[in-house]
C-alpha cells in the first residue's frame, strides 16, 4: 500500500494537472499579485481526486490525534471534502452559512449539535486565516468549541500564526513549500518558478485584518512577524538565555553567519577560529572528526570564542533516549556540555531527548537547536514530522534556542532562531553526497534563515577569512533588506 507521503505527492501532482494549482501572475482577494494560484473548487469535477484528498485529510487527522464531535466545512471548496470525511468517519457535520438567512430561522450554523461539542473546521486553503477566524467566531457564538482546523493547503502567509494567536491550531496537509518541492522533483515546474514563489511567500505575510506584514507599507496595526522583527527586539523575546546572547552577538558583530568548521585537525580548527572568527556569530563543530583531539583544543577554542566574540555549537545531532543522550552530552572524552554553548538535537526520539540533555546541565546557560528539516536531498522530514517537532520545541522554551529548518513558515516565534545550512555562493550541489545549496540572499529572504551555515564555501576557499567576510556581508545585507521591507516606509 502506498505510504502517506507518496499518496500526498500523487495528489499534489494531480491537483497541478487539473489546474487547481497554477503558476503565473494572479490577483489575490487581498489585492496583491501572486505567482501561484490555489483553487480547489474545481476538484468536485474529479471525484477520485476529491476522495483521495478526503482520505488523506482523515489519515492526517488521525496522525495528529485529532478527535472531535463535529466537523465543519467552510464554503465552498471545503464542503465536499468535509462531507466525505464525515461520511467515512461517521462524525456528524455542521455547516456555516456564508450569510445568515434573510427569512425563517436566522441560523448561522446548519446541522444538529449540542453546546460544548468539540468541532474541527475543515478548510481548503488558508492564506491569512481570516475566513477560518470568521467561522470560529460563528461556531463559538452557537456554543461550539473550536481548537483545531484541518487545512489542505497552507499558503504560509501568516495563517498559522494568526490562528494560533486566537487559540486555534492549524494542521495543514501540505504547504506551498511542499508543493514546490514535489512539483520540482516531478519535473513539472522549473527553478525560476520555485524561486519566485519562495520570494513571494517571504515577502507577503498577511495579518487577518488584511494588512501586510512585509513588504507592503507599514501601518499602525502591523504586528511584525519573526521574519520582519529586527534581531535587537527579538533578543528581548528569547526565553533561552543562549538565544538572547546569540542575538546580541549578531547585532553587535552585524553577522548572521555560522561557519561549519568541518576540519579534521586541531591546528586547522584553531586556525579557522582565528581567521573566520571576527566575521561569525557562531562557530559550529563536529568535534568527533578531529583526529588529534585533546582537552587543550577546547581551551584554545574557548579562548578564540572569547577573543572574537562568537558562540560555540557542537553539531552532535543527539538522537537517542534521554538517559543515553545525557551521558553523550556530558561524559566521554569530549564532555560537550562543559564547553558548547549550543548543540543540535533530532526530535525523533520524542520529548525525552530534550529532558535528557537538560538533566545533564545544572545551569541553563546552555541551549539546543532542534533539527526539524534537513538540507539533504530525499530527507525524510514530512509535514507531520515538522509539525510534531515544533510542538516538542514549545514544551521546552528554556532550552530550545532555535530550529534547524529549510522553510520560512516553520518558525513563527520571534524568540526562536532559524538556523539553515546548505548555503553557497556558487550553489553547486555536491552530487551523490546529497547536499543542496541555496544562495545567501535566498536562504535569508525566501527560506527565512536568521543564521546561515556555511562550511565548504569558507573552509575550502583559498582565503577563508576573505570568504567569511564576503558571506557575512551578503547574508547581513539580505537580513537588512528583509527587515527594512517593513520598517522603512
Ligand atoms: P557545507 O560544507 O556548507 O555543505 O556544510 C554544511 C554543514 O551543515 C555540515 O557541517 C553539515 O553537517 C551541516 N548540516 C547540513 O549540511 N544540513 C543539515 O540539514 C544539517 C546540518 Br541539520
UniProtKB/TrEMBL annotation:
InterPro entries per the UniProt record, alphabetical: Aldolase_TIM, OMPdecase, OMPdecase_AS, OMPdeCOase_dom, OPRT, Or_phspho_trans_dom, PRTase-like, PRTase_dom
Keywords: Decarboxylase, Glycosyltransferase, Lyase, Multifunctional enzyme, Pyrimidine biosynthesis, Transferase
Pathway(s) of this molecule: Pyrimidine metabolism; UMP biosynthesis via de novo pathway; UMP from orotate: step 2/2; Pyrimidine metabolism; UMP biosynthesis via de novo pathway; UMP from orotate: step 1/2
Catalytic activity, EC: 2.4.2.10, 4.1.1.23
GO annotation (BP), single: 'de novo' pyrimidine nucleobase biosynthetic process
Domain of life: Eukaryota
Residues forming coiled coils: none
Binding-site residues, substrate: 262, 284, 375, 435, 455-456
Family affiliation: In the N-terminal section; belongs to the purine/pyrimidine phosphoribosyltransferase family. In the C-terminal section; belongs to the OMP decarboxylase family.
Protein name: Uridine 5'-monophosphate synthase
Amino acid at each position: 500500500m502506498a505510504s502517506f507521503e507518496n499518496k500526498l505527492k500523487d495528489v499534489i501532482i494531480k491537483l497541478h494537472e487539473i489546474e487547481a494549482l497554477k503558476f503565473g501572475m494572479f490577483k489575490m482577494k487581498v489585492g496583491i499579485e501572486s505567482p501561484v494560484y490555489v483553487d480547489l473548487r474545481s476538484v468536485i469535477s474529479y471525484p477520485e481526486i476529491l476522495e483521495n484528498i478526503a482520505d488523506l485529510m482523515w489519515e492526517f487527522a488521525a496522525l495528529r490525534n485529532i478527535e472531535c464531535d463535529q466537523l465543519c466545512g467552510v464554503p465552498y471548496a471545503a464542503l465536499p471534502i468535509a462531507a466525505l470525511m464525515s461520511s467515512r468517519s461517521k462524525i456528524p457535520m455542521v455547516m456555516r452559512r456564508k450569510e445568515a438567512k434573510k427569512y425563517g430561522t436566522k441560523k448561522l450554523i446548519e446541522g444538529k449539535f449540542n453546546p460544548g461539542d468539540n468541532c474541527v473546521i475543515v478548510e481548503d486553503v488558508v492564506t491569512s486565516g481570516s475566513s477560518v477566524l470568521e467561522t470560529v467566531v460563528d461556531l463559538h457564538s452557537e456554543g461550539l468549541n473550536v481548537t483545531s482546523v484541518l487545512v489542505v493547503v497552507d499558503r504560509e502567509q501568516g495563517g498559522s500564526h494568526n490562528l494560533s494567536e486566537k487559540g486555534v491550531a492549524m494542521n495543514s496537509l501540505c504547504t506551498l513549500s511542499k508543493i514546490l518541492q514535489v512539483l520540482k522533483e516531478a519535473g513539472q515546474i522549473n527553478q525560476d518558478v520555485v524561486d519566485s514563489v519562495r520570494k513571494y511567500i517571504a515577502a507577503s505575510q498577511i495579518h487577518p485584518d488584511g494588512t501586510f506584514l512585509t513588504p507592503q507599507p507599514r501601518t499602525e496595526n502591523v504586528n511584525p512577524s519573526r521574519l520582519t522583527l529586527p534581531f535587537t527586539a527579538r533578543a528581548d523575546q528569547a526565553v533561552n538565555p543562549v538565544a538572547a546572547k546569540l542575538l546580541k552577538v549578531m547585532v553587535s558583530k552585524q553577522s548572521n553567519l555560522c561557519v561549519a568548521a568541518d576540519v579534521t585537525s586541531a591546528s586547522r580548527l584553531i586556525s579557522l577560529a582565528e581567521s573566520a572568527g571576527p566575521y561569525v556569530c557562531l562557530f559550529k563543530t563536529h568535534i568527533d572528526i578531529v583526529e588529534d583531539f585533546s582537552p587543550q583544543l577546547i581551551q584554545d577554542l574557548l579562548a578564540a570564542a572569547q577573543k572574537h566574540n562568537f558562540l560555540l555549537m557542537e553539531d552532535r545531532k543527539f538522537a537517542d533516549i534521554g538517559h543515553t543522550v545525557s551521558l553523550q552530552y556530558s561524559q566521554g572524552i569530549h564532555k560537550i556540555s562543559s564547553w558548547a554553548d549550543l548543540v543540535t538535537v533530532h526530535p525523533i526520539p520524542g520529548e525525552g531527548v530534550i529532558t535528557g540533555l537538560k538533566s545533564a546541565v545544572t545551569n541553563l546557560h546552555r541551549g539546543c537547536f532542534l533539527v526539524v528539516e534537513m538540507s539533504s536531498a530525499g530527507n525524510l522530514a514530512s509535514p507531520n514530522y515538522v509539525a510534531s517537532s515544533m510542538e516538542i520545541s514549545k514544551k521546552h522554551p528554556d532550552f530550545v534556542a532555535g530550529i534547524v529548518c529549510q522553510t520560512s513558515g516553520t518558525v513563527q516565534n520571534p524568540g526562536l532562531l532559524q538556523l539553515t545550512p546548505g548555503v553557497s555562493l556558487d550553489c553547486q550541489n555536491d552530487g551523490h553526497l546529497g547536499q543542496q545549496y541555496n544562495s545567501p540572499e535566498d536562504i535569508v529572504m525566501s527560506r527565512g534563515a536568521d543564521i546561515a551555515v556555511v562550511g565548504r564555501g569558507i573552509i575550502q576557499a583559498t582565503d577563508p577569512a576573505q570568504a567569511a567576510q564576503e558571506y557575512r556581508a551578503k547574508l547581513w545585507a539580505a537580513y537588512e533588506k528583509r527587515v527594512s521591507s517593513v520598517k522603512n516606509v
